[in-house]
Amino acid sequence: MKDVIFRKATVEDCRALSELKRDVWSTTYSGIYPQEKLDGYDVDKNEGIFRSFVERPDIELYLAENNGKPIGLMTVGKPYKLYNEYNQEVALLYIRKDFQRMGIGRQFLEIAKDEVRRKGFDRFVLSVNEQNENAIAFYEAMGGTTVCHDGGQRRIVFMIN
């Protein structure tokens, strides 16, 4: 994981993060999502979504970069889907395929735990596509517990000590 820097994203990062998300989607969700959905990914629209995350005080957008190029991203903060008992959510945890299995996801989860703890909470939730078996196995190996299956999504909770 040398040469990987983790930091909060800025507005200037949003275009590159939108392109990164598109690239990760094309490798992760091929065969899971219909090809039309992957082909219809809107870089401009997602850039705007990332900009809104940067500007919101209740969500943090983090990125991992290697040699100045984004290779991963994650949001942590107030859920943008309301879950009854969860005040914090990790969402959009995406890592380029060629940088997976290098400890980047683990580091993102540690950042999330620190951020959630700093805000005074003791757990966070994340949702993952039921067919994304690699991500599910990773989250469970990192200590997450499945609490719900909901509309093709698996909801996983991480408790923070």
Fold blueprint:
Elements: E1 4-8, H1 14-28, H2 35-39, H3 43-55, E2 59-66, E3 69-77, E4 89-95, H4 104-118, E5 123-129, H5 133-141, E6 145-150, E7 153-159
Antiparallel strand pairs: 1-2, 2-3, 3-4, 5-7, 6-7
Descriptive tags:
alpha+beta, four-stranded antiparallel β-sheet, Aminopeptidase, 30% strand, three-stranded antiparallel β-sheet
The count of strands amounts to 7
Q: Tell me the overall shape.
A: globular
Overall average pLDDT: 91
Question: Multimeric state of these chains?
Answer: single chain
The secondary structure category is alpha+beta
The topology string of helices and strands comes to: EHHHEEEHEHEE
Biggest beta-sheet profile? 4 strands, antiparallel
User: Radius of gyration over alpha carbons?
Assistant: 15 Å
Helix fraction bin: 25-40%
CATH architecture: 3-Layer(aba) Sandwich
Adjacency order of strands in the biggest sheet:
1-2-3-4
Q: Which CATH top level class fits?
A: Alpha Beta
Q: β content, as a range? A: 25-35%
- How far apart are the termini? 25 Å
- Taking pLDDT < 50 over at least 5 consecutive residues as the criterion, the unreliable ranges are none
Structural domain tally:
1
Annotated CATH homologous superfamily: Gcn5-related N-acetyltransferase (GNAT)
Description:
The protein has 161 residues and is α+β, with helices and mostly antiparallel strands. The chain has a single domain (4-159), classed as Gcn5-related N-acetyltransferase (GNAT) (Aminopeptidase, 3-Layer(aba) Sandwich), CATH 3.40.630. Helix content is 35%, strand content 30%. The chain contains five helices and seven strands, in the order βαααβββαβαββ. The chain has helices at residues 14-28, 35-39, 43-55, 104-118, 133-141, and strands at 4-8, 59-66, 69-77, 89-95, 123-129, 145-150, 153-159. It has a four-stranded antiparallel sheet with strand order 1-2-3-4, with helices on both faces. Strands 5-7-6 form a three-stranded antiparallel sheet. A hairpin with a 2-residue loop joins β2 (59-66) and β3.
